[in-house]
Specification:
With about 250 residues, the protein is of the alpha+beta class. It folds into 3 domains: about 70 residues, Integrase, N-terminal zinc-binding domain (Arc Repressor Mutant, subunit A, Orthogonal Bundle); about 90 residues, 2-Layer Sandwich (Alpha-Beta Plaits), CATH 3.30.70; about 70 residues, Alpha-Beta Plaits, CATH 3.30.70.980. A 4-stranded antiparallel β-sheet has the order 3-1-2-9. A 4-stranded antiparallel β-sheet has the order 5-6-4-7, with helices on one face. A two-stranded parallel ribbon has the order 8-10. The protein starts with 5 loop residues before the first helix and ends with a helix. The relative contact order is 0.19. About 0% of the residues have low confidence.
């Protein structure tokens, strides 16, 4: 569930991202609850809820858990009230970070996230300091062996996608948020299994780090990602896979 970046894509391929199932379930339950609260409990009429439920099913979350999360969101069951907000900051080398939060205590969470930044070589920034570097996009990552570039490009263009990028070992499909579901469905119907697919904050440009700066940046993102109230971490961080493998062990 960590936000897409070149670092996150590599981690996803290594199977090392969000390895703790309990943490995945906690985030998904929060997302389902908030989606149901904001847009209603009908998955057919609520795209955000539909995506959250699909993600939960993909992680083999029991149907009863999904149902209760929806009912807490709609008010049919008592539950915690979550506030959504975004914190911004910098890592080594001026790498930008957007941290999406769902919390039942804003002041506590802000204080804790500030501590995570300072403890791991980063610093929090004022609202708006880095948000302008990102655009909200549908982002579908496809392993290169799964499909030829021309075939994927045809699917993307025919279904309202915006761009197809070569990201080394994967193809990155970018869409307008409104076109995301249609493009993703078309990709799957073609028998192509995406490595990841989400609507998120995609950076305009990436900053590549090496050596100790890259190590520190990886630790900072992992520390943020481990916080219970963090739903997504978006960054414009790029790193060589060899260095990532060395850090990940």
């Amino acid at each position: 569930m960590s936000g897409h970046s070149k670092w996150a894509t590599i981690k996803h391929k290594k199977g090392a991202l969000d390895a703790k199932r309990g943490k995945i379930f906690t985030r998904l339950i929060k997302e389902i609850t908030i989606a149901a609260k904001n847009g209603g409990g009908d998955v057919d009429k609520n795209p955000r809820l539909r995506k959250a439920v699909a993600d939960a099913k993909a992680e083999n979350m029991p149907a009863d858990n999904i149902k209760r999360a929806i009912q807490r969101g709609t008010g049919e069951l008592p539950g915690v009230s979550y506030e959504e907000f975004t914190l911004e900051g910098y890592g080594p080398g001026g790498v930008a970070l957007l941290v999406e939060i769902s919390s039942d205590n804003r002041n506590r969470t802000v204080s804790e996230i500030r501590h995570v930044f300072s403890k791991n070589g980063g610093n929090m920034a004022e609202a708006g300091a880095v948000a302008w570097m990102f655009h909200k996009k549908g982002d579908i990552v496809v392993p290169k062996p799964a499909v030829k570039e021309d075939d994927l490009m045809n699917i993307v263009l025919e279904n309202g996608g915006e761009d197809l990028k070569d990201d080394g070992e994967t193809w990155e499909v970018l869409t307008d948020p409104a076109s995301f579901e249609g493009v993703l469905e078309a990709v799957k119907k073609a028998g192509i299994a995406p490595a990841s697919a989400e609507i998120g904050m995609v950076p305009q440009n990436y900053i590549k780090l090496e050596g100790q700066a890259a190590n520190t940046m990886i630790r900072l993102i992992e520390a943020l990602d481990d916080h219970d109230d963090v739903q997504h971490v978006w960054s414009n961080f790029d790193v060589d896979i060899k260095q990532l493998e060395e850090v990940a062990g």
